[in-house]
Specification:
Helices cover 0% and strands 48% of the residues. The chain is mainly β and 124 residues long.
């Protein structure tokens, strides 16, 4: 069982940065692949980035590649999403999620655990 709590959202101007954090409970955090998803207003939830259980592997959606960086600290049970060069289209509720299936990281229904989300708003 893993419980996830996101933080770090807020309002920022286009071109600015935000760092999202996700705190996980449970002693088996290091066993899980962690992902970030986002849901813009009126749209479906979409994959953003994922990181392997050890942190050695990462994967990004093309829309954020080169601007966002996912990382984790297994000693602290934390996963992060550094978001730079933000655009208004990055406005969304951002969710972190946990799965054991690295081969299916793009698929939301493969993630067993979800946080409650944090709002990130980018103004033009």
């Amino acid at each position: 069982q893993v419980q996830l709590v996101e933080s770090g959202g807020g309002l920022v101007q286009a071109g600015g940065s935000l760092r999202l954090s996700c705190a996980a409970s449970g002693r088996t955090f290091s066993h899980y692949v962690m992902g970030w998803f986002r849901q813009p207003p009126g749209k479906e939830r979409a994959f953003v980035a994922a990181i392997s259980s050890s942190g050695s592997g990462t994967y990004y959606d093309d829309s954020v590649k080169g601007r966002f960086t996912i990382s984790r600290d297994n000693a602290k049970n934390m996963v992060y999403l550094q978001m730079n060069s933000l655009k208004p289209e990055d406005t969304a509720v951002y969710y972190c999620a946990a799965t054991v299936q690295w081969g299916w990281v793009l698929l939301a229904d493969r993630y067993a655990y979800w946080g409650q989300g944090t709002q990130a708003t980018v103004s033009s």
